[in-house]
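User: What would this chain look like folded?
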Amino acid sequence: MKTLRSNESRQLKTLSGAKNQTLLHFLRPDDVVMQSANFYHELLRIKNDPDQAAVSLSRSSLVIQESDFGQAPQFLDLIAPPVIGEADLAFSPPALIQNLEAVATKVSFLEVEVIESDQADYENVSVLWTQTYEGWLSGLEKPHLKIGLDPNKSYRWQVMFMGQDSSTYDDREQLNLNKITHVTQNAAEISK
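Assistant: Here's the prediction, encoded as structure tokens.
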């Protein structure tokens, strides 16, 4: 794992004989100032420093690159969390970037249990409901879920917008999530 700040670059080395090579580029808000290249060390530092923000992976953007490794990735914008209404959910899809098709929206209802440890707290997330829709939605009616909520756990609605490189997209094909090249996501906690 390599960490980069704004306007910083790094050289990556890959296996020369590997048939399939994939780079995952991950963007998240700058809510934690990384002080070393060791992610585990950073989590330990955050756990011991209450003034530091928690590492949040729910608001993020991801680019999957299987070729053109010399090209800098173009990320979808980080998006606002879903707005939770009485009967519906409202979303803010990202701006579409050049050479990308708006392929799918995935909406999930998640149960989150925070597990505490001496090094860092982490989340055990269970998907209670999920649905994938073609295209990018700006909202939908909440499903009628008959699920008992545990007061010791938290719950959130998550939305993911998925895009695909235009050169591999064919709107006559059935939705194929294996061809996704871009994802941006965010989530909103529900009040119990």
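Helices lie at 39-48. If you want, I can go into more detail on any region.
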